[in-house]
């Protein structure tokens, strides 16, 4: 009898332990349940929105950086053109702009010569020392992009200097030619698209 009670007690304890283990497993399954479909979809939507915002940000940043780089190149090319004409004969340039009443030296009228040509810029023969050099200055190519540069005479500004009541400014006007260097991407047809302007003076050698 005593042995039977012991066996029953052990069996009861085992059954109790099994029941407790079963309860723990059920509770564990409830705590470890997965995400619902709505939660997954919400997460995907949020990630998509964040990705779109980041993509847009980086795209705009790259475009801005490229535009700034292009702007810097154009400013440097314009300054190079101004530096070039400053080294040319002032008397010839003064005759061309002031005396003969020309408004500009245009890139479209002075293209680099083709292999079959010797001079495609003869219209400026009496203005600069080397037409071919002028053609390349007015039509530079940087990083595969072609640019066109026009050197424009600022007649109204010069006239103001000539007729100025300030004696020094009036006297100085004899030795200065105010110009505007206008440069644009040759691939863009619209006049004001991707255009940069640099202003300066062609100075007579006597006061340099």
Automatic annotation (TrEMBL):
Transmembrane segments: 34-58
A biological process from GO: establishment of competence for transformation
Localisation: Cell surface
Keyword annotations from UniProtKB, A to Z: Competence, Membrane, Transmembrane, Transmembrane helix
Keyword Transmembrane: yes
Alphabetized PROSITE patterns for the sequence: PROKAR_NTER_METHYL (PS00409)
InterPro entries recorded: N_methyl_site (IPR012902), Pilin-like (IPR045584)
Gene3D superfamilies: Glycoprotein, Type 4 Pilin (3.30.700.10)
Record-linked Pfam families: N_methyl
GO cellular component terms attached to this protein's record: cell surface
Protein name: Prepilin-type cleavage/methylation domain-containing protein
Organism of provenance: Paenibacillus donghaensis
